[in-house]
Each structure stands twice: as C-alpha cells, then as structure tokens.
Amino acid sequence: MVVDRALGEDPGAYVCLTNVHTTVESQGSAALRAAAANAFLSVPDGMPLVWILRRRGHPTTEKVTGIEFAPMVAEAGLDQEVRHFFFGGADGVAEKAAAGLTRMVPGTKVVGTITPPFSDRGDWSIEELQAEVERTRAQVLWVGLGAPRQEIWMSQVAGRLNVPVMVGVGAAFDFLAGTKKAAPKILRHVGLEWAFRLLSEPRRLWRRYLGGNAYFVYLLARSAMARNPPAR
Q: How much is the mean pLDDT over the chain?
C-alpha cells in the first residue's frame, strides 16, 4: 500500500481524500489548491471525480472513502504494528472513532487521541500534539477537522509535526465512532452518498450539496467547452 511507502520517508507526508466539495472550494482558495498539489497522495472520495478520471484515461480508478480507507490502512499495518493516533472530532469522538477502528480491525494499535478546542480559524497550537506524537511514536495521524480545513491544516504543519504520514478523513471520525450513520456501501459507489448524507443532515449540508454540486456541473461544462470550443 502507498501509505507503507510514506512511512519509510521523511516525516511530513499527508494524504487528501478529494471530493466534489473540496474541488469546488479550491476554486476560491489558493491555500487549498496548494495543499492538494503538495500532498503525498490525493485520492478521489467522490464518484463524479472517479467517473471523470475513468473517462480521461484512468479506467481502474476507484472511490476511496475515509470509512473504507482507515480499515484498509490499519489492516495493512498489523504485521508491522503500525501506531495510529486520532486528532480532531467533537468532544469524545476521537476516542470513539479509535475504538471503532479497533473493532473493525482487531489488533490495530491506537496510541493516542486529541480533540482540539473548537475554532473556526483552525489555528490550533500543535505543541501538545507534537509532544504526544513524539511520546507515543505515532506513525499514522488520522485527522478529522472537516474539509477543507483539515487539508489546509495538514499542509501547514507538514514540515513541523514529526509524524510520518497524516490522513484527512473528516466525517469518517463520526462514522467510525457511530455518532453518525455512514451511507450504505452500494450508495457510496453509485454516486448517491451525497443524497444519503443530505437526507441525514439537511440543515447543515443543503448548501454544500445543492449549491456545490450545481457549481461543480458548471465547472465541468466550462472545462469541456475550453477543451472543445464550438466551431466558428
């Protein structure tokens, strides 16, 4: 697995799970675009992106969601006893998410959890986290700060936080913890996860999905016209 390669590199690698929301948000955020460009790995966490990549010459592309990626990484790291650390989530969620991952993949070694103070700015001090990462010798830092905040945060601390690899998984913290219900796998892989989540949290997500999805379609149309301008 590619995360195994990151564990052998110098500290500072991070993985972005990119979806329609972060793609749309990146149009107005140079910091988010830079975060994606500098990531060790960026994988599609959204079927629209998968379909686009397949049409553009990558037929084996598959969707990678946080709720699926976390156990994959944990399973791959069992023999090496890879040490996992959870950072983010609401009060108590990081601990529950860690417990959820160990239930999914028995033998997973979770060495610590921290929930940062709530802040819209995302300018948390990393001193406590750095001390705990070094004390526990954590190797994979699971980051659940919500997109696009977590992507920008990972890019900002990549050169300062002494951990081999960080992975931004956002809502997967809640799904692993059981505080929110994840969409059934079949919906996740036919492009209907957004509908499930919108029905689950309409007041919080309606603007992201309805407005964001519409803007994404506009971006696709604009890109298609740029590649294939109408004949004059």
A: 89
Q: What does residue 47 show for φ and ψ, rounded to 5 degrees?
A: -65, -35
* Reduced 3-state DSSP string for 16-76: EEECHHHHHHHCCCHHHHHHHHCCCEEEECCHHHHHHHHHCCCCCCCCCCHHHHHHHHHHH
List the alpha helices (DSSP H) in the chain.
2-7, 20-26, 30-37, 47-55, 66-76, 93-104, 127-136, 149-157, 172-177, 185-188, 193-200, 202-206, 212-227
Rounded CA separation 163/135 (Å): 11
- Whole-angstrom Cα distance, residue 20 to residue 15? 16
3-state secondary structure of 170: coil
pLDDT in tens, 180-197: 999 998 998 888 898 888
Amino acid sitting at position 168: G
Strands lying side by side in the sheet with 13-18:
41-44, 13-18, 165-168, 140-144, 83-88, 109-114
Can you give the C-alpha Rg of the chain in angstroms?
18
Residue-wise pLDDT tens digits, 102-143? 999 999 999 999 998 776 545 667 898 999 999 999 999 999
Prediction pTM value: 0.88
Q: What angle do CA 183, 187, 192 make, to 5 degrees?
A: 100
